[in-house]
Design goal:
8 helices; alpha/beta; 8 strands; about 325 residues
Length: about 325
Amino acid sequence: MAFVRVPGNEVPNGAEEHWLEGRGGVRLRAFTAPALGGPPRGTVILASGRTEFIEKYFEVIRELQSRGFAVFTMDWRGQGLSGRETSNPMKGHLATFDDPVNDLATALRLLVGKLPRPYITLAHSMGGCIVLRALQTRRLEAEAAVFGSPMWGIQGLRGLAKSYVRFMHSIGAGENFAPGVDKRWKRENFKRNQVTHDKERHTRAQDLMTEEPALAIAGPTIGWVNAAIDATEGFLQPSALAHLRLPVLVYSAGQEMLVDNKSHDAIVALLPDAKHLTIDGAKHEILQETDDIRAQFWAAFDPFVDAAAPRRAA
């Protein structure tokens, strides 16, 4: 299938779509694009968040290519154009976060010929949970890691809410929608959005899902929430992250409404070599934000990755 296209969202130069098979026979869509402008500096492994998909990051991918990086990304199982694990394609479901971790490891192994080292991860939200789990379990080896608004905790998910999820999952209700979430996708009004101040980028993402409804999903299942609890609690176990000696850069959004920024402080304190920045005016999707907010992201990203992947002469 060709990439979904809308005006103003140009396909990156050299982009290729790849189809793979994950655990349980789930069909997975992956993406590669080469570095531009000279010898590659390495590969950025771009890990998107819940509900997201490859085309939403075309602008970011082009920016990474212009910096001399090849790029890999994929639609996680259960979203985008990858296969679903429930009969209702609107349900955002994962049985365990180890499944997308294994999917990521499989895709990188199969596409290694297109992905020059060093590897630098750039992970947003749920992608930050998947990537940290992959690094924690040594199913991904990278030279540096960047996390934007990582989902290392979810706002409001504590105490009774967490106990309810655990109980419902234990009695076999994991594929039910979590309480209070949307059960279908509908185009979002910009004024009501919780993720960006940038109307043009917000509209572009909505246009992509309107153009290809199969890209869209609704709310998460109880099983997804239970899997998120398992993964994030695992990061806090004694010495769980002590072996991660790679340099890490973590961004938090000052106007965050979805993930728990306190979890960023907790995880950064456990990482041997981590720097933590907060972009005060940003909402959750920092890379889909206004130009001035995105400029703050790149201003820290560029010198950080220079140490792991120095710029090379053409």
